[in-house]
Design goal:
globular; alpha/beta; 274 residues; single chain
Length: 274
Amino acid sequence: IQVPGLFIGYLIYDTILLNQETKLFYPPESYTQFESYLKWVSHNCDFMLFGGENTKKDVARVQQERGWPTPPGAAVKFGTDIVKINLTTKEEDRVLTRLGITGEFIITVGTIEPRKNHWTLHRAYQMAMKADFINLPQLVFCGRPHGAVGDLMDVIERNPDLDGRIIVVSPTDEELAVLYKRCRFTLLPSLYEGWSLTLPESLGQGKFCLTADTPPLREIADGIVDFAAPFDTRLWADKIISYSSDDKLLAQYEKKIAEKWHNTSWFECAQNIH
């Protein structure tokens, strides 16, 4: 039924439930449900919005493969705003102490789930510990465990070598703002994303991010961060050591970020969608 003056638009954040690289991380019914949802959107919507150009291409490929319509659409860059903090250095120090942080640290932000690839990061960090334990910062997982990551959480909790070295926290907004501000750099080993929220957050704070080499993450930050193949544990270990110890190299990337990165506020995001 067509209603004059009424238009339907849908936002597709990502297609990870259908992608060959990521659908194995989710139950089969998720694939079926999302496919049915995307089919309805393709046949009934007047326009579509997407989490980045890469998601737009992913959706178009799915529609073409299944013979569905491809409504007009546009890619969206989401906001990078995080909570503003107005704490003294001593107050920030108390936040870090409360979280178990005792010196330099690096962070990875996001739900702890199989697709986010914390296993590779955990193994790479252990390799780095064996090679350069003294200079290696603490590694902070910022996020809540979700899905089949019980074994990983158990290993981190039970391994005495990791006690105080890998810290798992579910920070408040204020705590996360302090973690971004005070960390040496960030890491994003995720196997696939739509439009990542955490990579722009890191860049918005002027922080270098060691990033998984995947198309959606290159779309966001190609040329201003360093990339590593998602499953190349040795490469991740080597790069963690490098950016943990080489102040000059880290400063070069921070300079690129300051010169080339443009923050998109959530207000700008809303304006662009409008």
